[in-house]
């Protein structure tokens, strides 16, 4: 039987979908493209914004229309946030617990043809163990090390749909990464809902895990998907400085460049703290790429406060800004605030911040013209190869090379969004 999987949202969902695909493959099912006519469709949903909800509904209905006789599984955050939802055509409802049991649930449905509600009222405090050996179609592999969040930012629904923080056992993380490296993955990306919180429930911390991972033989690159500024502890920064295997790229969510808005958001820092920590990082790693997330149009954000955000982003010189217009989420504190921002004003501010992001990104890219960088080749076609550096420069190379190689490339020019270059040495690649 053919299984099609659609993944929406974050890297954690991507990892979980990969694990689910491996479970079906082990039982003899064929993994097919979601656009094909399949016997089973799985939609791993997202609910971080209203747009995410809409996309989740759209993909569910698309699967139902494509093959009304198929077994339709809707799982993940959108289902968890809407425990009483009913969509005619969904056969199995799964929240954010027991995704690892999806094959058994599907086979139970195929046998009995009775709708299954596996949407628990409580998410539980145990980490749901998942472990993958391959990451189909990718040159870098994600490893989920943590789930849940207890920050309760006032705009965010995720703590309510992902539950309390819980971590994968350190030994299991090491075993999984070691296996992936042996299977040819040059770059590992550590991911979680609140990645930097790793280990609090195990009596250890994130730095302890990093210290073990950097010792894994054959690992070329280690990337942290996202980390809060408050969790870049002295120990983490020392590891970043000492071990080149930890790439020179950090994604640190800012969310707002106004102390008033940060306080309203229930963020755990102010602008002075954020700036000082970034300065400290840049003293250690002058060429490091620091990207961020910013929410535009949060309730109460005046034009002056938005200008503060623009000015602060310029001051930090982020290499990229992921911009999100504020989206009220039901039952979150921010959704109940009265001073909501006009949608057209949010749209205008979003465009302005995206324009600034492009300027800052190009400025960062320009620094590398004439320099030699190491690029992980990810795809090749039409006479060019494409890949990323450790500091996340998007590089286009004037020749086709084999995927999964790390090569020294001389950057010659910028063709946004690419740095364009040539092989710096006509020798064997690093790997």
Explain what you see.
With 431 residues, this protein is α/β, with parallel strands linked by helices. It has helices spanning 11-26, 50-66, 77-81, 102-112, 158-162, 170-182, 206-213, 234-242, 259-264, 271-284, 303-316, 343-366, and strands spanning 2-7, 30-32, 40-45, 71-76, 92-94, 116-118, 140-147, 166-167, 187-192, 221-224, 249-251, 289-296, 320-325, 372-381, 384-389, 394-397, 406-415, 418-423. The protein has 4 domains: 2-118, Rossmann fold, CATH 3.40.50; 129-247, Transcription Regulator spoIIAA (2-Layer Sandwich); 264-364, Transcription Regulator spoIIAA; 372-423, Nucleic acid-binding proteins (OB fold (Dihydrolipoamide Acetyltransferase, E2P), Beta Barrel). The chain has a 6-stranded parallel sheet with strand order 2-1-3-4-5-6, sandwiched between helices. A 5-stranded mixed barrel has the order 14-15-16-18-17. The mean pLDDT is 95.
């Amino acid at each position: 039987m053919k299984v099609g999987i659609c993944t929406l949202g974050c890297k954690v969902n991507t990892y979980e979908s990969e694990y689910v695909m491996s479970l079906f493959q082990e039982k003899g099912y064929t993994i097919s493209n979601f656009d094909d006519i399949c016997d089973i469709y799985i939609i791993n949903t997202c609910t971080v914004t209203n747009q995410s909800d809409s996309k989740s509904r759209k993909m569910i209905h698309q699967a139902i229309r494509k093959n009304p006789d198929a077994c339709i599984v809707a799982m993940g955050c959108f289902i968890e946030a809407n425990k009483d939802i009913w969509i005619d055509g969904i056969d199995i409802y799964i929240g954010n617990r027991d995704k690892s049991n999806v094959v058994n649930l599907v086979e139970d449905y195929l046998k009995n043809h009775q709708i299954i509600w596996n949407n628990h009222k409580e998410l539980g405090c145990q980490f749901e163990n998942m472990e993958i050996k391959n990451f189909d179609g990718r040159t870098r592999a994600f490893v989920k090390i943590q789930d849940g969040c207890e920050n309760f930012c006032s705009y965010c629904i995720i703590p309510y749909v992902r539950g309390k923080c819980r971590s994968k056992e350190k030994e299991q993380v090491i075993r999984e990464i070691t296996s992936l490296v042996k299977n040819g993955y040059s770059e590992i990306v550590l991911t979680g809902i609140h990645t930097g919180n790793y280990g609090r429930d195990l009596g250890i911390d994130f730095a302890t895990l990093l210290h073990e991972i950097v010792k894994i033989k054959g690992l070329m690159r280690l990337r942290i998907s996202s980390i809060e500024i408050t969790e870049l502890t002295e120990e983490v920064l020392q590891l970043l400085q000492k071990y080149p295997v930890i790439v020179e790229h950090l994604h640190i969510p800012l969310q707002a460049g106004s102390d008033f808005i940060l306080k309203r958001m229930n963020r755990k820092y102010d602008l002075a703290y954020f700036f000082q920590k970034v300065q400290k990082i840049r003293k250690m790693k002058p060429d490091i790429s620091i990207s961020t997330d910013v929410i535009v149009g949060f309730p109460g954000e005046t034009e002056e406060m938005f200008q503060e955000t623009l000015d602060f982003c310029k001051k930090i010189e982020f290499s990229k800004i992921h911009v999100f217009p504020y989206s009220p989420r039901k039952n979150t504190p921010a959704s109940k605030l009265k001073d909501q921002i006009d949608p057209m004003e949010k749209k205008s501010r979003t465009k302005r911040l995206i324009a600034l992001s492009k300027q800052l990104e190009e400025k960062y890219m320009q620094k590398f013209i004439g320099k030699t960088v190491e690029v992980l080749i990810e795809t090749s076609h039409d006479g060019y190869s494409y890949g990323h550096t450790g500091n996340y420069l998007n590089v286009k190379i004037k020749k086709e090379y084999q995927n999964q190689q790390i090569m020294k490339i001389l950057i010659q020019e910028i063709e946004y969004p690419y740095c364009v270059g040539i092989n710096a040495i006509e020798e064997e690649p690093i790997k």
